[in-house]
Amino acid sequence: MKQTIIILGMTLIVNLSLKSQDYVPFPTENVNWNVFYAGTCEEAPPDTSLLRYTIHGDTTINEIQYSKLCLETGDTINPKVQTIGGLRESEKKIYYIGQTIYAGGFEDEYLLYDFTKQIGDTIKHDSYSGFYSVILDIDSVEIDKSYRKRYKVDNHWFYQNPDYIIEGIGS
User: What percent of the chain has pLDDT above 90?
Assistant: First the structure.
C-alpha cells in the first residue's frame, strides 16, 4: 500500500510539471506576409519580386466566412490594396480560396495547412490533382518567447523542398 501511494505521488508530481504546447491559431487581423518570389526559365537570370500580403477584414465567399486576403502594391505608406482571396481556419486546418500564382478563381478551396497531421501523414491540398505534401518531421521553434510546432514537409511540387510550416504563421 505504501509503495502504491509513493508511486501515485511521484506520478502526480511528474504530471504537474509537464506542460503541453498550446496550439497557436492562424492570425485573422493585424498581420502581413512578405514573400520574395524568384522565377526563371532555363538558364536566364531570375525575375524577382517582393509580394506583400495582408488581411483586411472579413468577407463571405460561396456562403462561407473568410478573412479577406489582400495583395499590397506600391508605396508601403499608402499602398494599393487588392483583394485576391480568403483564408479560414476550421479544426486546426487552414483553407484558401481565390487567385493563385497560376490564375484561379473563387470556385475551388485549397487546404493550405493541416496542423492535426503527424509524421508520415499526407496532406491532400485539393481533391482532384497531385497537389499534396508529406509530413517528414515535427519539432518546435521559439517565437516571441513561446514555442510553436514546426512541420518539415516534402511538398512534391514546389522548388523549395523541403518546406517548413509553423503554427500560427504558415510557410
Answer: 42
Q: DSSP letter for 131, please.
A: -
Kindly tell me the sign of the dihedral angle through the C-alpha atoms of 71, 73, 76, 77.
Answer: negative
pLDDT tens-digit readout, 101-119: 666 678 889 999 999 999 9
Q: How many CA atoms lie within 13 A of 143 on its CB side?
A: 11
Point out which residues pair with 65 in neighbouring strands: 60
Q: Position 61: which residue type?
A: I
Residue type, 85: G
Longest dimension (CA), the chain: 78
Q: Looking at the DSSP assignment, which residues form a beta bridge with residue 161?
A: none
Q: From its phi and psi, is residue 87 left (phi > 0), alpha (psi between -120 and 50) or beta?
A: beta
Q: What is the spatial distance between Cα 134 and Cα 124, in angstroms, rounded to a whole number?
A: 9
Cα–Cα distance measured from residue 104 to residue 100, given in angstroms and rounded to the nearest whole number:
5
46 secondary structure, DSSP code: P
Question: Which spans in the chain are helix H?
Answer: 2-17
